[in-house]
Design a protein that fits this description.
single chain, Aspartate Aminotransferase, domain 1, four-stranded antiparallel β-sheet, 15 helices, binds 4'-deoxy-4'-aminopyridoxal-5'-phosphate
């Protein structure tokens, strides 16, 4: 493994030199004004307490401790002898004995400590955050952690600042939570800081101020568009001015087609006001359900307290598999792997854009994503819902109507298309069929 702090070759190529940035940002810290994190907690979260049983877990590793306290099942009764993993490179890893036993047993709520240590190395090398006392908590994918963070920060009736259009999976959680949406529009350079500032400047004195901004800065789902670095800096300054917490939902970060990778909000965070969500879903496996959040301990603790009372912890076996492969690769190997995944999608993007050009030029408009797996297509109609949910399905093309991605629903001619899965021939045929429908 590469020691944290030493910047290996591949990292230099991938990321900008963030050390100067980190130093610069520290000078702008308004941390002293933000320190009281309890001002951000929802009423629900304030009621969450440490589980008495879960809290005992840290004592288990003390030498000589005899545990009659927990309800741990005895691993001798489990039927699994070993797990053999063969990577596509041909290497085989055998997981057995104590290592496997640990993964099969109940584990700690914030995640396996070895995996957490590895992820910290990654965060240091890739983001080098100026706010250094951050914690990391692993979850069942990043969605698990984002929704817990939202529950911890938002009361029913609160307004959340949310980029628009945005990830539909988060809207599905926020609507029943009773959140109101203040939409901040995105364009081809990402979220618009001027619109954010204006909304906050014009906020009526009598209404509870929004305190949370949710953003998907890389390859936004559905637009495929990313927020440029200059805008991130402006948004961060606005967050400082208006005392906001930024929820940086960034599962497509490593799917940027060009390097150096754009610095994250986390790498600008000198105050401790960013909760950054990462995921292995798009780069190792979606089914493994492993994601992680990095951010100020007081906020990460809210997520952990929620986990203690709900899913207890992410799957031990998934964490072991993920840690085993990451540890084998090291940070450099991981970054190299993500490059090959990004190149895979870039090639598909090119093929899809070519098919769009061939069949839909003059009939529709679309974004040219520089990362991720989505293209946001504007059809020459006021509302795409009927065409996409009925006629397109009859013609055997699946697309998502744009209305789903607007927090405050509205008629829109947009649709989301993904170039991640279908073959190049299928993508071409889908474009041909869509053109025919139009
Ligand atoms: N955020 C965004 C923007 C996503 O597109 C997704 C997956 N569709 C998620 C979060 C959830 O990812 P995970 O598999 O890590 O829960």
């Amino acid at each position: 493994m590469t020691a944290a702090g030493s910047k290996p070759q591949v990292h230099k190529k991938l990321s900008r030199d963030l050390s100067q940035l980190a130093e610069e940002m520290k000078r702008f810290s308004t941390f002293k004004q933000v320190m009281d994190y309890s001002q951000f907690f929802s009423e629900n979260s304030k009621l969450r307490k440490h589980s008495a049983i879960r809290a005992m877990q840290k004592y288990l590793s003390i030498p000589g401790m005899i545990s009659l306290g927990g309800g741990l099942p005895n691993t001798q009764t489990f039927p699994f002898e070993s797990i053999s993993v063969k990577l596509k490179t041909g290497e085989t890893i055998e997981l057995k004995d104590k290592v496997l036993d640990k993964a099969l047993q109940y584990g700690s709520t914030p995640g396996d400590s070895q995996l957490v240590d590895w992820l910290r190395q990654l965060q240091e090398q890739v983001h080098n955050p100026p706010y250094q006392s951050y914690d990391i908590c692993v979850g069942n994918g990043s969605q698990d952690l984002i929704t817990k963070a939202m529950e911890a920060l938002i009361n029913p009736g609160d307004t959340i600042l949310i980029e628009s259009p945005t990830y539909v999976g988060i809207l599905a959680f926020l609507r029943p939570l009773g959140a109101k949406f203040l939409e901040i529009p995105v364009d081809n350079q990402g979220i618009q800081p001027d619109a954010l500032e204006e909304a906050l400047l014009n906020w009526p004195d009598i209404a509870t101020r929004p305190k949370v901004l949710y953003t998907v800065p890389t390859a936004g789902n559905p637009t495929g568009l990313s927020t440029i670095y200059e805008r991130k800096k402006k948004v961060y300054e606005i967050a400082q001015k208006f005392n906001l917490i930024i929820l940086e939902d960034d599962p497509y970060y490593y799917l940027q087609f060009k390097t150096p990778l754009t610095p994250s909000y986390f790498s600008l965070d000198c105050d401790g006001r960013v909760l950054r969500f990462d995921s292995v879903s798009k780069i190792l496996s979606g089914g493994m359900r492993v994601g992680w959040v990095s951010g100020p301990p007081a906020l990460v603790e809210r997520i952990v307290l929620h986990g203690m009372a709900t899913n207890l912890h992410p799957s031990g076996v998934s964490q072991l598999l993920v840690h085993t492969v990451l540890n084998k690769w090291g940070v450099n190997g991981f970054l190299e792997h993500t490059r090959s995944v990004a190149q895979f999608y870039e090639k598909r993007r090119d093929a899809f854009l070519h098919s769009l050009d061939t069949h839909l030029k003059g009939k529709a408009e679309w974004t040219v994503p520089e990362a991720g797996m989505f293209v946001w297509i504007k059809l020459p109609i006021n509302d795409s819902f009927d065409l996409i949910t009925n006629k397109a399905r009859e013609a055997k093309i699946l697309l998502v109507p744009g209305v789903e991605f607007f927090p405050n629903k509205r008629d829109t001619g947009y649709v989301r298309a993904s170039y991640s899965y279908a073959t190049e021939e299928e993508m071409d045929e889908a474009c041909r069929r869509l053109a025919e429908l139009l």
